[in-house]
Amino acid sequence: MEPKHRVVLVTGGAKGIGRGIVLHLAAAGWKVAFCDTDQAAGEQLEACSEHNLYFVHGDVAREQDVARIVSEAVSWAGVLGAVINNAGIADPHTGPVEELSLAQWQRRLDLNLTGPFLVTKHAVPHLRKTRGAIVNMASTRALQSEPDSEAYAATKGGVVALTHALAVSLGPDIRANCISPGWIDTRDWQGCEEKAEALSATDHCQHPAGRVGTPDDIAAMVAYLLSPEATFITGQNFVVDGGMTKKMIYED
């Protein structure tokens, strides 16, 4: 990607993994536009960062918001070279399926799956011009589950499928990949100054990699997938989970 095209839009960028991605890419020289429903956190990040950031308030589940977010990002930077579809509801637990309300189910679909579709739909005309890239945020819960997480798992499985469909439809002009994070400790990345309590040795040691993940671990994979070294990679789901999905766990 030409240097002048190193402009990225990150959804859900004010807190958590999204915040880590925004700061990582900005430090690497990208011009970063980001959106979030949390206006205070978004404005705080834009104001306190030493990097070239642009915040747009909006909800990716609303098409009129998405059209405005993409339009403002392109107006600010002139071009758009990449989109990171990160926004979504992070809490996977919705209770027993027989008690799961249609409203809870639909809200997760709207944010976690329809959101990436809408952002992609409105960004594609701009990404074609720059031969850009899309990175969607899925989850290891697309591959394995805990009880009472049907809505979340369904949306993240949909993101994986949406990604390979986009790769085939949009290639070779645009590449599309997704990342499935495992346990990522985002407590110090929520836009607040209070330091999170340390995780336990058990929390870390259960991972084959020896530790719980951080937003930087995901941001580094995002940066690689946007890099010139990744131009032969599209349609793939990259699991970044410290090895947990490869670990057999049996009750004693």
Tertiary shape: globular
N-to-C SSE series? EHEHEHEHEHEHHE
Strand content: 5-15%
Tell me which CATH architecture applies here: 3-Layer(aba) Sandwich
Helical region count? 7
* Highest CATH level, the class: Alpha Beta
Q: Tell me the CATH superfamily.
A: NAD(P)-binding Rossmann-like Domain
From the N-terminal CA to the C-terminal CA, the straight-line distance is 52 Å
The fold-level CATH name is Rossmann fold
* Count of discrete domains: 1
Mean pLDDT: 95
Notable characteristics:
alpha/beta, Rossmann fold, 7-stranded parallel β-sheet
Protein described:
The structure is a single chain. The chain is of the alpha/beta class and 252 residues long. It has one domain (3-246): NAD(P)-binding Rossmann-like Domain (Rossmann fold), CATH 3.40.50. It has helices at residues 16-27, 39-48, 63-77, 102-130, 150-170, 201-205, 215-226, and strands spanning 7-11, 31-36, 53-57, 82-85, 133-137, 175-181, 237-240. It has a seven-stranded parallel β-sheet, with helices on both faces. Helix 1 crosses helix 7 (215-226), helix 3 (63-77) runs parallel beside helix 4 (102-130) and helix 4 (102-130) runs parallel beside helix 5 (150-170). The termini are far apart.
